[in-house]
Amino acid sequence: MVNYPNGRKSSIAAAQPAAKTAAGGRGMELEKEISMTNDYYLNIDKAVIHKKPTPVTIVKVDYPMRSAAKITEAYFKLPSTTDYNGIYQTKYIDFEAKECRSKTSFPIKSIHPHQIKHLDAVTRHGAIAFVIVRFIAYSETYYVTASLMTDYIRTCGRSSIPYEWFKENGHLIPYSYVKPVDYLVIVDQLYFKETQ
Amino acid sequence: MVNYPNGRKSSIAAAQPAAKTAAGGRGMELEKEISMTNDYYLNIDKAVIHKKPTPVTIVKVDYPMRSAAKITEAYFKLPSTTDYNGIYQTKYIDFEAKECRSKTSFPIKSIHPHQIKHLDAVTRHGAIAFVIVRFIAYSETYYVTASLMTDYIRTCGRSSIPYEWFKENGHLIPYSYVKPVDYLVIVDQLYFKETQ
């Protein structure tokens, strides 16, 4: 069912003293693991949450055989929203996910001002909004409520958020083989405690 | 604020006996008008609803000057979800929009099986899900509750849905200059009657 290779790089990273896995993956490992998790949620009909396609501006398209259009010129666009959204337990879910290579802090510039504005807007309208941050060096993946993070960014006067801040304000997301980034466990704890 | 040209093709289409506007726009007119409407909703902080980027598979990227990456080979992918989603009045909103050039019926093949499955899934999870269908010949834009339409598609044994069916089961979406496809008026009528 799931279209990903069996081996899991970051479990190797957890065994070894880390950091080296970052070079190849460039943020893709977390994305793959979230996709696996979302596929799992979808397959058991627990939630419908998808990654949005990468926004590109298409400039030129060739139609070599009419049926298979080939895009020959396109450019990456800055995202105006977050990467992920969907529905869980009747609630609108919205989040952004980032890998962090630094051992000490998360650079605020990794999140675009548009995305911060978007997270604030959906929060205001009643969304369950959050940010998933993985510290590659520690193989730790944190769930942080969006408003906590955007408040901090607005008031901290810094260019990065210390790792310690995530330990204090975030929630460690559990890993399992079929749900490598099982973030709905945290959503359940924070929003649906009584229904468990 | 809004990045669209001032002239509005389909108002001309409404004055003249229609149909000719279909040739040039090829489904883009409705998309533009929904974007204008979504921008309006966003600017007055009424709702946060966006079109998802067109899904493409990127095969080759050139970095001519390092800063401006140029995609030189990419292909269109079949969409696995609908084009639009977001949040309104704390509710998850999800819809697909289609223009129809026929005067008599809407071809069912315009909606991919994946999208039907997706609309059913989000409905099951409590979404406000619908399909917007514009009959270009009549300059009429209908809101149809997703479950009504997917039920019909599953049981009708036909390859198209008659125009009359939309008149009976759909809701005509009002047009205004700043909100060309003011679909939240229908959402209000169907889901938030008491709060108006």
Describe this structure in words.
By secondary structure, chain A is an alpha+beta fold. Chain A has a single domain, classed as Trna Endonuclease, Chain: A, domain 1, CATH 3.40.1350.10. Chain A has helices spanning 9-15, 21-25, 28-43, 113-124, 146-156, 163-169, 184-191, and strands at 47-51, 56-62, 70-76, 84-88, 91-100, 105-107, 128-135, 140-145, 160-162, 171-172. Chain A has a 6-stranded mixed β-sheet, with helices on both faces. In chain A, strands 2-3 form a two-stranded antiparallel ribbon. A two-stranded antiparallel sheet of chain A has the order 6-9. The longest helix of chain A is centred in the N-terminal third of the chain and has 16 residues, at 28-43. At the A-B interface, strand 1, strand 3, strand 4, strand 5 and helix 4 of A face strand 1, strand 3, strand 4, strand 5 and helix 4 of B. Strand 3 (70-76) of chain A pairs antiparallel with strand 3 (70-76) of chain B, so a sheet runs across the interface.
Assign the CATH class of chain A.
Answer: Alpha Beta
Q: Residue-averaged pLDDT of chain A, rounded?
A: 87
- Taken together, the total number of domains of chain A comes to 1
Radius of gyration of chain A from CA coordinates: 18 Å
Shape category of chain A: globular
Strand content range of chain A: 25-35%
Question: What series of H and E elements makes up the topology of chain A?
Answer: HHHEEEEEEHEEHEHEH
Number of helices of chain A: 7
Distance separating the two termini of chain A:
28 Å
* Annotation, overall tally of beta strands of chain A: 10
The class by helix and strand makeup of chain A works out as alpha+beta
Proportion in helices of chain A: 25-40%
Can you list the strand order of the major beta sheet of chain A?
1-4-5-7-8-10
The assigned CATH architecture of chain A is: 3-Layer(aba) Sandwich
Biggest pleated-sheet summary of chain A: 6 strands, mixed
Low-confidence regions of chain A: 1-26
